[in-house]
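[job 4471] stage=fold_predict status=RUNNING
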Amino acid sequence: MWLTDQQKIGVGLVSFGTFFLFLGVLLFFDAALLALGNVLFTGGITLLIGPQKTFYFFARKQKIRGTACFFAGMLLVFMKWTFIGMIIEAIGFLNLFGDFFPVILNFLRQLPFIGNLLSLPGIREVLDKLAGSRQSAV
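[job 4471] inference complete, writing structure tokens
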């Protein structure tokens, strides 16, 4: 799969945004790191899939509640209400990107070390239930 230079920058921004969000939560909801992570993540998504597709993704009728929660959470983080903002943003994130979790889980199961860990009997059932994966009858 070939990525354009713009998409490569988008992948980098999404990665750094995720890192800063994780670091901001790890450092007791540091407002500056969380705000930076939000900006980088949102900008990276825009560069990764394009502005028009990003708008259509966030403006879909089925995702409007998730979009409202996600951006309201971002606004609360910018206003330094970090804990409440991250809770509301997490709800919006799950509503927006929850459809991708089974795909991500299947991708992670293809990786050498992580795949073996995720395929262990106890972990497999829990992750399948959380991601909403269905087992085939075959």
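[job 4471] summary: The helical segments are 5-26, 31-49, 51-59, 64-78, 82-97, 101-109, 112-118, 121-131.
[job 4471] exit 0
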